[in-house]
Amino acid sequence: MDLQQRINAFSKLGDFLSQFSTKGIQKNETVEANDLFFDGFKHQIKLAKEHNGWFTENNILYSLESWSNALQADHITKWTHTYNFKDISPKTIAIIMAGNIPLVGFHDFLSVLITGHKVLVKQSSNDKHLLPFLTKYLEIVAPAFKGNITFTEDKLDNFDAVIATGSNNTARYFEYYFKDQPSIIRKNRNSVAILTGNETKAQLEALSEDIFRYYGLGCRNVSKLFVPKNYNFDDFFNAVYKWHPIIHEAKYANNYDYNKAVYLMSEFDMLENGFLMVKEDQSYASPIATLFYETYDNDSGLKQKLIEDSEKIQCVVAAGLLEDEIAFGKTQQPQLWDYADDVDTVEFLLKI
Question: What InterPro entries has UniProt attached to this entry (predicted)?
Fold first, then answer.
């Protein structure tokens, strides 16, 4: 396949996914190969939900809706047009995927195939139902993909480069194990938001999406706030209250109760509203149902700190402070050219 054919194939996948959104699941008779796959994918969503308690139907559909929006032909064309795809010698690229949120490894999968390489996928056991089924759809609408996509649960073998995502501990193992191959190794990162005290209610409500979507399990979820000294959290708590039903979901509630008990027994100072705890802490990775915060004196000092800690940070949510900031409510809606860890995956793949 040439590049345009690959773009067309993923655009058809985007059309297929458009039937599955947070507004509901609605069959579209014009979608190619729909009779073969629509009901089957509904079943895969059910299996994914049953297999992983963090994968609620709403969160799965949110992910599918986001990918449907991204996989529009004009978006893929805009993403790819700045690269030179000529003279590509197809290689086999291994991908070790995380499983913290639904289809979290899809961008790497897409990047490998859109560049004309073959992909060898090792999925997380937490997220193993959705992608293999979508691969079958791709192979039907674009038969040339057959033989270029392999899933394995065994030890990785016979590959030319690797993209691996894991914790800081597993990253050290990856770096040693794959030291002789070209690689992208991703470690833990978290996202932050900068508040000034002048935010509108709409901005703070949008921020709640960045905090609570996927229960805060993604690297693009805001896990820490930077606030001015003596910041009043009342407006913040009022704005995020629309998420209060989350406390009725068992896995989240269990984490809330556990962490609250730990903080109380340790006599830590914190604020809480019945479903979220806010605690002053210099760390970036906060536990589920907890949001850390840190105060700042001035913009210049804060900007310097963010530069120094850049390898720990995935996204910075702010309004008019930084060139590469993300708007409130938009962390879980990245564009195709928004690369994890600011490492250009396509450029890496084109140079192998």
Answer: Ald_DH/histidinol_DH, CoA_reduct_LuxC
